[in-house]
Amino acid sequence: MSTPTIAFIGAGNMARSIIGGLLESGHPAQSLRAADPFPASLEQLQALGPIPTFADNAEAASGADVVILAVKPQVMAEALGSIASHVAENRALVISIAAGITIDSMRARLGEQAAIVRCMPNTPALLGCGASGLYATEQVGQAQRGYAEAILGAIGLVEWVPGESALDAITALSGSGPAYFFLFMEAMIDAGCELGLERSTATAMAQQTALGAARMAIEGDVDLVELRRRVTSPGGTTQAAVESFEHSGLRETIARAMRAANDRAQEMARELG
Ligand SMILES: NC(=O)C1=CN([C@@H]2O[C@H](COP(=O)(O)OP(=O)(O)OC[C@H]3O[C@@H](n4cnc5c(N)ncnc54)[C@H](OP(=O)(O)O)[C@@H]3O)[C@@H](O)[C@H]2O)C=CC1
Ligand SMILES: O=C(O)[C@@H]1CCC=N1
């Protein structure tokens, strides 16, 4: 497959994460472009590599095989308007990573024939450990599906979902998910300090425990319940902690939080219209 020219519209956190992952995987900087009205965001990109940058979206999109919309949902209408003529004239693939923004609302601004992949990545993309859910419209041909899979595959795991609505659930799980784990770690570190540990010690132990647990969950062939059972000595310390979590409704707390994220994604879709 030839190397596609990829234009990023919006050069914030997620664009940086994806660009960092692409460069790490060997994608040439000269085949990337980025546009952002905020000069500091464009300057920050230069730390990753010599990526051509533009203040004007249409200029960045011009000549690109793939245009990645990496702006906040609130400015999506404006961003779509700025690339519409390039997309229509060149049949470029559009990949949107915005939470909640539906394909229908993008088609309304790009035209019915636009080839659109809606995607929900996450920030660990920066380390090549991302997880992205993808959904393609029927206008997306095999070669363009290949581009989408190669771009998001360069920064981690890719899962095609069977229906667009699954992307709101993916957003609630893996899109927002890194923040849940960071919050859990923050709480563990604070609690470790309350129990008398130095903050540096509590931080190092929480970080390594998260890494070790994630690797065991991913790399072994043992399921999560069994992994948990192996830590939990009958009548021991883990049992005391896990019973405390269960009594305080941790599972329902997590389910409620993810429903809130899913609902918010649907609300954001209605806001763009
Ligand atoms: N952060 C995350 O973990 C994830 C985010 N997403 C999605 O990614 C998208 C981007 O999020 P994130 O990177 O965090 O946001 P950021 O705010 O970090 O980045 C967006 C960038 O777009 C710029 N921008 C604003 N208006 C325009 C415009 N009209 N044209 C071009 N660029 C513009 C912003 O500039 P300025 O700051 O000046 O407004 C900013 O630099 C969102 O839609 C979000 O839903 C998806 C998965 C995970
Ligand atoms: O918080 C948000 O809306 C975005 C989408 C997923 C992660 N960050």
TrEMBL record:
InterPro entries: 6-PGluconate_DH-like_C_sf, NAD(P)-bd_dom_sf, P5C_Rdtase_cat_N, P5CR-like_CS, P5CR_dimer, Pyrroline-COOH_reductase. GO terms for cellular component: cytoplasm. Pathway: Amino-acid biosynthesis; L-proline biosynthesis; L-proline from L-glutamate 5-semialdehyde: step 1/1. It is an enzyme of class 1 (oxidoreductase). Pfam families: F420_oxidored, P5CR_dimer. Keywords: Amino-acid biosynthesis, Cytoplasm, NADP, Oxidoreductase, Proline biosynthesis. NADPH binds at N57. Residues 5-100 form the Pyrroline-5-carboxylate reductase catalytic N-terminal domain. It is found in: Cytoplasm. Gene3D superfamilies: NAD(P)-binding Rossmann-like Domain, ProC C-terminal domain-like. NADP(+) binds at I9, G10, A11, G12, N13, M14, A70, V71, K72, P73. Its main location: cytoplasm. One of its GO terms (biological process) is L-proline biosynthetic process. One of its GO terms (molecular function) is pyrroline-5-carboxylate reductase activity. Its EC number is 1.5.1.2. The keyword Lipid biosynthesis does not apply. Residues 164-268 form the Pyrroline-5-carboxylate reductase dimerisation domain. SUPFAM superfamilies: 6-phosphogluconate dehydrogenase C-terminal domain-like, NAD(P)-binding Rossmann-fold domains. It catalyses: L-proline + NAD(+) = (S)-1-pyrroline-5-carboxylate + NADH + 2 H(+); L-proline + NADP(+) = (S)-1-pyrroline-5-carboxylate + NADPH + 2 H(+). Belongs to the pyrroline-5-carboxylate reductase family. Catalyzes the reduction of 1-pyrroline-5-carboxylate (PCA) to L-proline. This is Pyrroline-5-carboxylate reductase. The lineage of its organism: Bacteria, Pseudomonadati, Pseudomonadota, Gammaproteobacteria, Cellvibrionales.
